[in-house]
Amino acid sequence: MVRKPSAKQASARSGLRLRSILAALAVLALAACAATSDPPAPLRAPPSDADAAYRIGPGDTLTIFVDGSPDLSVHALPVRPDGKISIPLVPDVPAVGKTPSGLAQELASRLRKYVKDPNVTVMVDSFNGPLDRAIRVVGQATVPQTIPYVDGMTLLDVMVAVKGLTPFAAGNSAKIVRDVDGKEKSIPVQIGSLLNQGDMTQNVAMHPGDVVVIPESWF
Q1: Hey, which of 55, 172, 183, 207 has its CA 20 to 30 A from 132?
Q2: Phi and psi of 76, rounded to 5°?
């Protein structure tokens, strides 16, 4: 003989089935949302070593060493305003925008007409860098100027180079103007807090070509 469940047991089983159905519906709803939502945007890759490497600019001074050929080696050679250099046997070689190792390979390639397996080394004695990679500081800096970009440079490095702010500067209203994918982006920075209170959250990383704009205070 089969015993029928009591009314209390039947009610409990019905409640359990209802909770199971609701839980299943919730799981299906979450799965549907996950399937239709946009995937997270990928993180921007860090700059490659090639992008970070120093590139020669007009006015840089170079030392070019050709192993085993002292007559072809040159010291304190300035990069001309037209962006070119000349060494014995190889005149008018474009140098601006190239890395030292890239320029060394170019010189070695041209010297092969005259030297067997030339081994060329290029060293930068004084740095300016290409103008499109330089950091420009305008407005109420003590010494507004153009600064060669160096890999890893921060806003604090820039402010040390320009010797800080003038007494009339509105340092906490400053901004960095940056080219991002061909569009101009304005990044507010509080230079006063960085220099006077040591607020390192304002010590942002600089990018090649940045312009730091420091307005004058009206008070």
Answers
A1: 172
A2: 50, 50
CA distance 170 to 137: 14
Determine contact, residues 59/85, Cβ cutoff 8 Å: no
**Ranges assigned E (strand) in 35-115:** 61-66, 74-78, 84-87, 90-94
Lowest mean pLDDT among 38-47, 64-73, 92-101, 121-130: 38-47
| pLDDT score for 186 | 95
pTM: 0.59
Mean pLDDT of all residues belonging to the chain:
83
Distance CA 122, CA 56 (A): 11
Amino acid at 7: A
**Could you give the domains of the chain?**
50-126 (3.30.1950.10), 134-214 (3.10.560.10)
pLDDT at 6: 55
Q: What's the longest Cα–Cα distance across the chain? A: 115
d(CA 141, CA 161): 10
Residues 6+ apart with CB under 8 A from 96: 55, 56, 57, 58, 79, 83, 84, 130
Place of tokens 């010291």: 75
